[in-house]
Amino acid sequence: MTRKATLLSDGQDGSHGNAASDTKKLVTPAFSEPHDSHSPSVSLEQSFKAACSIMQTEAVSFYQAFRGLPEDRFKAVAAVYAFCRYADDLVDEGGSAALPQLDDLEGSVRSLFEQTRSRDTRISTADDAFHDNDSRQQKPKATMAPTLPWWPAFVASIRRFGVQEQGLLMQIQGQRMDADFHDIETTAELIEYSRLVAGSVGIVLVPILVNDMNGIHDLGFMQACEELGIAMQITNILRDVGEDIRKRNRVYIPHDLLEAHGITRNLLSSLAQENVSTQRIVIPEAFVSLWERLATLADRYYLPYERHIDSFHKSARVPLITAAKLYQAIEQAVRDQSYDCFTRRCYTSKATRLRIVTQIQLREKALWKI
Fold it and tell me: How far apart (Å, rounded) are the C-alpha atoms in residues 155 and 149?
């Protein structure tokens, strides 16, 4: 499936360095050791290192954008990233066979929050952790997820910042849509899919990045965070059209838009075949028109979060804006490759990323009052 946008992939190539060297000082007293993590052999420090290593390896631009956060916020972002990447990779590697593992992950999340609610945030012993006390409800049992090396960091981050259960369950539901995938029929279905797999990440990150928890009660603000995820997912789909159909036989562009522009699935498959010659393929004008229509839709969803920038913690504003602008720049990278999102992976150059970051830093006071 296409990689989930907001946290999961930035399309960058190259070596990403040694994560351990960047995360030596991650542990602070603000986090409580989750003794119910089922990972007794992994210390909290080691768990955060594992989470940061995953983010640094899999999402270079995102890692670079958010590493400027205060230590506690940065490592919580990394832990949430590890959760989302794990869910995404389950389906990428297993398809429909990953559904039981997604059930396991959901069971782990539900049990974590049930435990926190029932014990008033007190930590239980390992023996009764993740126990489902409500026999009347059929809920997935948690067996595997809590043994993963990043899980203690994830649990500590959820408790430290009050991350909302809703966003995590939305993420899992979005992954189920991919595991049991069918071609997307309408633009509305595309938006709903993007809301689940990427808008959910915006909801999850809110408590980590805001000034205070009052933000979660502001419906306009929460919608803006969700829409930023939707925008990034659509950009992600526009970048990976060829890879999705060639490697996974999946088309995320809505069928109604394909039909309106006279484009068939067979045409997309033909364009997506590996280009063994040095000659660049010619992209039909009809596809360019369709691509730009979806890019315009994505750009509309990129806008609302900027109106709420003051709701984010001062330290989070530049990283957030940077991550959004770097991802939105992928659209121009596709244009620069003459819309060949079929046989090549379009990504922003280091020079472009540096220019975007510099521009944001220069105008932060004028535009966002950072």
Answer: 11
